[in-house]
Amino acid sequence: MELLAPDQISEEETKMEAEWQSYSRYWPPPYPPGVRFTPTDEELVKYYLTPKVRRQKLPYDSFVEDDLYQYHPQELAEKYNASMEEEGNWYIFTQRIRKYANGGRPNRSAGLGYWKATSSDQKILDREGKKIGYKKSLVYHEGKQPYGEKTGWVMQEYKIDESQKPIKAKSMVVS
């Protein structure tokens, strides 16, 4: 291996190193260039969300946990050093809070807007055909419900099937 003096390192190499460091800043561990984390819906539910809800060890802990509904999506992008220009997705574990204490409807207010469902729950099946969870698409709207303005921010929300959840588990989703 050859070591170079700082003045021998090209500007491009310096930029690449800075970019590499920024990737690992919030989403550890970093992926080598060209490697992508692209789990299927089944893999997200089976290997990440279900163990998280059951408080088990995750096979690869590249997710952050945060209160997704406290932020405008752009604030999350800035907080976690991501942007819409970057290819790929980000994954955030968050608790789903109910809008009313005794109701089943989730509170979708976030930042100065809200997330609006654009699809009903879609079943996620494992390889044996057993229902293990659900996926729902949501779009962020700026402003007050129901008059908010639709934005380009889209979220896929995953939740486990009730039969997979421990009795006293909180409602946790990955978005």
From TrEMBL:
Keywords carried by this UniProt record: DNA-binding, Nucleus, Transcription, Transcription regulation
NAC domain: residues covered: 31-175
PROSITE patterns reported in the protein's UniProt record: NAC (PS51005)
SUPFAM superfamilies (UniProt xref): NAC domain
UniProt-listed GO biological process terms: regulation of DNA-templated transcription
Record InterPro entries: NAC-dom, NAC_dom_sf
Gene Ontology molecular-function annotations: DNA binding
Name of the protein: NAC transcription factor 32-like
Originating organism: Elaeis guineensis var. tenera (Oil palm)
